[in-house]
Design goal:
Layout: H1 7-16, H2 20-24, H3 34-52, H4 56-61, E1 65-67, E2 70-72, H5 77-87, H6 105-118, H7 120-139, H8 142-153, E3 157-162, E4 178-181, E5 187-197, E6 206-213, E7 226-231, E8 233-235, E9 241-244, E10 247-252, E11 263-276, H9 282-318, H10 337-369, H11 373-409, H12 420-427, H13 437-449, H14 455-471, H15 477-499, H16 503-535, H17 541-554, H18 558-568, H19 571-574
C-alpha cells in the first residue's frame, strides 16, 4: 500500500508537453528554474509518500466520528495536516501578496496529484480551501480579504463549499436556504446543506464556509442566489477567534469510498455571514471556486488511477500463477501477455490524461501572467475549454484504471486486504462531484464550443496541427503521424457536426464528443512530449515514445468509433420506447 510519486514523469511533462519555459519567461515566474521545480517535486514526493500514504488505509477503515456537534477525524490526520500546513504546501501556487509562494499552478497540479494519490480523502481538504481562497480573493470585499485570506493561504484555517441541499443537487436554482439582513452589514443564514466535504473537522482551528442562500424577495431560480461567508468561529477585531457561529454538522454520510473525508450534513440556524460579491450573483462567484476545483478533481482521477496502477504493478511483480510463456517456473504474472497489456494500457492512458491536466493548469498560469492582453485572453479561453475535458476525461479514466487494477489482482482484488478495492471505491466519486461528467460534457458542447462558434476549439486544433508537424520526424513517424493526422481530422469533423446540430442532437452526443477530444488530445500531448524530448536529447524520450506509439495504436483510434455515433445525433439514444425501457 505504499506510494512512490512518479517524479520523473512530472518533470518530463513540464519540460516537453507543458512548455513550462513559457511560464518561466513571464515576470511573475521569472525566478522559477528547473532546479527549483525538481527540488519541490522531490520534497512533495517525500512528504506524500512518508506522511500521507500510510494514513490512506487507516482513513478507509476507521472513519471520522461526529461527537457533540463536532467531527473528530481519523487518528493521524490532524498531525499530518499540521505537517502539511507547516511545510507550506497549501501556499505553493498562491500569490505572494496574500502570503503565497507565487509558483506556477502547473507545478501545483503535480504536487496535488501526489497528495491525492497518497491519500485522496485527506487531499480534499486543501483542495477545497484553495478553491475557496480563489473565490474570496476574486469577489469578496477588502475587509473580508484582510480577515480571512492569509489564514487560509497558510492553511491555519480551511475552507468548505456549501451548495447542495436535500432537494437541490445539480439544479441549484431550487435551493431554499435563506439569508436575512441583520442591519449591521451581516446576514442571518438559515437552511440545511448536504454532502459538505470536510464541512467540520478537528485539523484546523477555523473553517470558512462559502454558502449559497437567497435574500428576501430574491428572484426565483439561479438568478436569485447569493454567496455568503460563514466562519465556524467568529473573528474578533484583533484577529483572535470569538464565539462559535450558529451552524453545526448534524450527520456524517456513510459513503462508498473516501471514508477518511468527513462528508457532513450542515444545519445553519441564523448563522452570521457576510455577502461575497453582488446580491443575487452568488452562482457566478461560486463558479470561480468550482472551476478550479473541477480541474483538480480531474487531477484526482489521474492520481487515484496512478495509485491503483502502482499497486497492480507491484502485485504483478510478486504474484506467481501459471507458467509464463518462454519463462521459468515461479516467474511472476507480469510475464503474461494479457497482464502486460493491462499495465501498459493503464500507464499510457494515465500519462495522457496527466498531460491534459497539466497543460490545462499551465493555460491558467499564462492567462494571468502573459504581458500581452490578447495572449492572456487566448490563454483564458484555452483554460476554460480544457477544464471540463480535464475533469470528465480524467475521472472516467481513473475509474476504468482502478477497475483494471482490481482485475490484475484477480480474486485478491475483490477483497479489502490488498487495497485494490479501496482505490476502485475512492475513484468512483470523482465523476460525480463538482459537476457530474454529463454536466461537463454539456458545458463543453453548449458553452465552450457552440457559444463562440467553435473559435476556441479551432485554435486548439491549430495547435494540434503544429504537434502533427513534430510527429513527422523520427524513426517511428510511421506510427504516430498517421494516427494523429486521422485523429485531428476526426476532431475537426465532429466539431463541425456539433456546431451545426440541433440542440437535442448536440446534447445526446456531448459525452462522446468530450471523450473523443480527450482521446485525441492525450495522444497528441504524448507525441509532443516524445518529439520535443528527443530533440532536446532527453534520455527518457525513448520511453515516452513507446507510450506515444501504444496510444497511437490503441487509444487514439477510438475517436473514429465515437464519431460514428456523434453523426447519428439523438436517434440512437431516444429511439427505444421510453415506456419499454424496463423490459423488451
Amino acid at each position: 500500500m505504499s506510494y512512490v510519486a512518479p517524479v520523473k514523469a512530472f518533470h518530463y511533462l513540464l519540460k516537453h508537453a507543458v512548455d513550462v519555459e513559457q511560464i518561466m519567461a513571464t515576470e511573475a515566474h521569472s525566478d522559477v528554474s528547473h532546479e527549483l521545480i525538481g527540488d519541490i517535486l522531490e520534497g512533495a514526493a517525500s512528504f506524500t509518500g512518508d506522511v500521507l500514504a500510510p494514513l490512506n488505509w487507516t482513513g478507509d477503515q476507521h472513519h471520522p466520528e461526529l461527537r457533540d456537534g463536532n467531527v473528530k477525524t481519523t487518528a493521524g490526520f490532524k498531525e499530518a495536516y499540521a505537517q502539511y500546513a507547516e511545510a507550506g504546501w497549501m501556499s505553493l501556487p498562491m500569490r505572494e501578496d496574500i502570503g503565497g509562494m507565487g509558483l506556477p499552478q502547473a507545478l501545483a497540479a503535480a504536487t496535488s496529484e501526489m497528495t491525492y494519490a497518497a491519500n485522496m480523502a485527506f487531499g480534499l481538504c486543501p483542495m477545497l480551501t484553495s478553491s475557496a481562497v480563489k473565490a474570496i480573493d476574486a469577489h469578496a470585499s477588502d475587509e473580508l480579504k484582510a480577515i480571512y485570506l492569509e489564514k487560509m493561504v497558510s492553511a491555519e484555517w480551511t475552507g468548505a463549499m456549501d451548495l447542495t441541499e436535500p432537494q437541490s443537487g445539480s439544479d441549484l436554482g431550487t435551493l431554499t436556504s435563506k439569508a436575512v439582513p441583520n442591519g449591521d452589514g451581516s446576514y442571518a443564514v438559515s437552511g440545511q446543506k448536504i454532502y459538505i466535504t470536510w464541512g467540520d473537522h478537528d485539523c484546523a482551528e477555523n473553517i470558512i464556509h462559502l454558502v449559497l442562500a437567497r435574500l428576501p424577495d430574491a428572484p426565483a431560480g439561479s438568478r436569485g442566489i447569493s454567496l455568503f461567508l460563514c466562519p465556524k468561529y467568529l473573528v474578533n477585531d484583533d484577529g483572535s477567534l470569538g464565539d462559535r457561529n450558529s451552524f453545526k454538522p448534524i450527520g456524517l454520510e456513510h459513503k462508498l469510498g473516501i471514508h477518511g473525508s468527513p462528508t457532513c450534513t450542515m444545519e445553519f440556524d441564523g448563522a452570521t455571514g457576510w455577502l461575497v460579491g453582488e446580491p443575487n450573483k452568488g452562482l457566478a462567484c461560486m463558479f470561480t471556486m468550482m472551476n478550479e476545483a473541477r480541474l483538480f478533481v480531474g487531477v484526482q482521477g489521474v492520481a487515484i488511477g496512478e495509485r491503483a496502477y502502482q499497486a497492480a504493478l507491484q502485485y504483478a511483480n510478486d504474484r506467481v500463477q501459471g507458467k509464463v510463456l518462454g519463462g521459468e517456473k515461479g516467474d511472476p504474472i507480469i510475464g503474461h501477455a494479457d497482464v502486460r497489456r493491462m499495465l501498459i494500457d493503464m500507464k499510457t492512458r494515465l500519462m495522457g490524461a496527466r498531460a491534459i491536466c497539466m497543460v490545462n493548469a499551465a493555460a491558467g498560469d499564462l492567462a494571468h501572467s502573459l504581458p500581452d492582453a490578447y495572449a492572456r485572453k487566448a490563454a483564458h479561453i484555452r483554460d476554460a475549454l480544457l477544464t471540463p475535458i480535464s475533469k470528465a476525461y480524467s475521472t472516467d479514466l481513473g475509474v476504468d484504471v482502478a477497475s483494471i487494477g482490481v482485475q490484475i489482482h484477480g480474486g485478491m482484488g475483490f477483497v479489502e486486504e490488498t487495497g485494490a478495492a479501496q482505490h476502485y471505491r475512492d475513484a468512483r466519486i470523482a465523476p460525480i462531484y463538482e459537476g457530474t461528467n454529463g454536466i461537463q460534457a454539456i458545458d463543453l458542447v453548449g458553452r465552450k464550443l457552440r457559444r463562440d462558434g467553435g473559435e476556441g476549439m479551432r485554435a486548439l486544433i491549430k495547435d494540434l496541427e503544429d504537434i502533427h508537424e513534430l510527429s513527422k520526424d523520427g524513426e517511428v513517424a510511421n506510427v504516430c503521424e498517421p494516427a494523429l493526422r486521422k485523429g485531428i481530422e476526426t476532431l475537426r469533423t465532429a466539431t463541425d457536426i456539433l456546431l451545426n446540430a440541433e440542440e437535442q442532437d448536440a446534447l445526446a452526443a456531448a459525452t462522446d464528443y468530450l471523450a473523443l477530444v480527450g482521446d485525441v488530445l492525450s495522444g497528441a500531448y504524448l507525441i509532443k512530449a516524445a518529439a520535443k524530448g528527443r530533440a532536446a536529447g532527453d534520455p527518457l524520450s525513448e520511453n515516452m515514445q513507446i507510450l506515444a506509439n501504444y496510444h497511437a495504436l490503441s487509444v487514439m483510434p477510438r475517436a473514429g468509433a465515437r464519431l460514428d455515433i456523434i453523426r447519428k445525433g439523438a436517434d440512437p439514444v431516444f429511439a427505444f420506447p421510453v415506456g419499454q425501457l424496463a423490459d423488451l
